[in-house]
Amino acid sequence: MRKLILALAVMAIASACTTVPAELEGSYRSISPARVDGGVLGSQVRWGGVIVDTRNEEDVTCLEILSRELGKYLRPQVSDRTAGRFIACKPGFYDPEVYSKGREVTLTGRISRIEVRQIDEFSYRYPVVEVDELVLWEKRQDVRVYDHYDPFYSPYYWGYGPYRGYYYYYYPFYRSPGFGVHGRATIRKTVPDPAETKAGD
């Protein structure tokens, strides 16, 4: 029963992700951050990725972002693949404790220029995007899903006759005393509902 409840909970979370945030809708040129040159300056793009750094200047906040491919609902995908880094700037103050390293964002805006900054000893050419819309995604949740169940050797069952009972042992394995491992658990990443995103003002 517990396995069924958890499976239904995962399905409910997944089914909630059925829409693209309205502020990200539209058609945009397919331009890679790693391939920006003078010929595409002024182009409107829709990019996303993971925040590397947040800098608040006099009247604008600029995010350094490690790009990621966007998924079906325009959230950055979990992957080691990247099309390079870029800088996204938007007027106003965006708290670095909220727009912190590792948070995922998707944005739309115009490529305004190329800016050279140092990464260690390397001079890196960053495309700079003047942001129109910015979505800060909710943090991903870890959901534990049981992938094994046995009515006699379940994750909760041990013993026979007057000695049988229930025993709890958490991730990565459930163990029954004296009977070894009878169940396993896996961790799956879930995507929050896009309606729960935080859009920049």
Question: What's this model, at a glance?
Answer:
By secondary structure, the chain is mainly beta. The chain has one helix spanning 2-16, and strands at residues 44-56, 60-67, 85-91, 104-119, 122-136, 141-146, 157-158, 165-166, 173-176, 180-190, 198-199.
Protein topology:
Layout: H1 2-16, E1 44-56, E2 60-67, E3 85-91, E4 104-119, E5 122-136, E6 141-146, E7 157-158, E8 165-166, E9 173-176, E10 180-190, E11 198-199
Parallel strand pairs: 3-5
Antiparallel strand pairs: 1-2, 1-4, 2-3, 4-5, 5-11, 6-10, 7-8, 9-10
Care to describe what's here?
- It is a single chain.
- It is globular and about 45 Å long.
- The two termini are 44 Å apart.
- The longest helix has 15 residues, at 2-16.
- The chain has one helix spanning 2-16, and strands at 44-56, 60-67, 85-91, 104-119, 122-136, 141-146, 157-158, 165-166, 173-176, 180-190, 198-199.
- The protein contains one helix and eleven strands; from the N terminus they run αβββββββββββ.
N/C terminus separation: 44 Å
The value of Rg in angstroms is 23 Å
The helix count comes to 1
| Order of H and E elements | HEEEEEEEEEEE
Large-scale geometry: globular
State the strand order across the main sheet.
1-2-3-5-4
Can you count the beta strands?
Answer: 11
β-sheet strand percentage: 35-45%
The largest β sheet comes out as: 5 strands, mixed, barrel
Share of helical residues:
under 10%
Structural class: mainly beta
Mean pLDDT: 77
In the predicted model, the low-confidence regions spanning at least 5 consecutive residues are 156-183
